[in-house]
Design goal:
The chain contains 8 helices and 7 strands. The protein is α/β, with parallel strands linked by helices. It is elongated, with a radius of gyration of 24 Å.
Length: 242
């Protein structure tokens, strides 16, 4: 299948309503990780919704409990075609923020995907059910276009606690280091520069929080007598802060 035909195949899937139906079903699942008592719903999203889809795409998947008590589960899935091929790891999250049902204007509902002109409304449609549903649909299109092969190895990591700060994600990645090893990570969870133009960010971003202290000596020394002679911790730390 040519590149043009492959793109048309993907577009046909979207315009047929199949993608809307799949996303609508997922939006209807109340996976509010910020709500107490959501554990069953979070696990069901993986076991009843994502795992069957992954199986249809030829993935072998498993659900892993969170290393942190009370944290949402993770789904890890793998489709291996050849040791010589590169491996792509796809990340997404199935949990959403609270629905805030009463704050939605009629007739919209957070749990019903609604098309209004060229916009779709529904909790998770933009963060992050829409994105990982797109990725799974893209994999299906590639398989169809290439006669049942991707041409690369693929792995999935879907978490259910991103909206509560991803508790346990770092520990899981350490524990499952080999299972998650890949050449490329695709994390479809971020903003677009323009609404009409898809955006791909290359590289990595993040933040590290830490405390830095310097203990120069025991006891106090009078600055009038010793200033300029003894190291001042503030001056020593200034380059680090800059």
């Amino acid at each position: 299948m040519s590149r043009t035909a492959a793109l048309q195949h993907a577009l046909d899937q979207f315009e047929s309503g199949a993608f809307f139906a799949t996303l609508s079903r997922r939006v209807g699942l109340r996976t509010e990780s910020q709500e107490s008592g959501s554990a069953a719903a979070l696990r069901a999203y993986l076991s009843d919704e994502i795992a069957p889809e992954a199986a249809r795409l030829g993935f072998v998947s498993r659900i892993v409990d969170n290393p942190v008590d009370g944290g949402g589960p993770f789904l890890l899935a793998s489709r291996h075609e050849d040791d010589a091929l590169p491996t792509v790891l796809i990340y997404g999250h199935g949990d959403v923020v609270r629905g805030y049902d009463a704050q939605w204007r009629a007739p919209l509902s957070p749990w019903t995907l609604t098309a209004d002109g060229d916009r779709w409304y529904g909790r998770g449609s933009a963060d992050n059910k829409g994105q990982h549903t797109i990725n799974l649909a893209a994999l299906a299109s590639v398989l169809d276009a290439r006669g049942g092969r991707l041409g690369f190895n693929a792995k999935l990591l879907i978490e259910m606690g991103e909206e509560t700060g991803s508790p346990g994600l770092d520990a899981l990645c350490s524990q499952q280091r080999d299972a998650l090893a890949a050449d490329v990570l695709i994390a479809s969870d971020g903003p677009r520069i323009a609404a009409e133009r898809p955006t791909v960010f290359l590289g990595s971003r993040g933040a590290v929080n830490f405390k830095l202290s310097l203990h120069a000596r025991d006891g106090a020394h009078h600055s009038g007598n010793w200033g300029g002679l003894l190291r001042n911790p503030a001056i020593v730390l200034a380059p680090a802060l800059a």
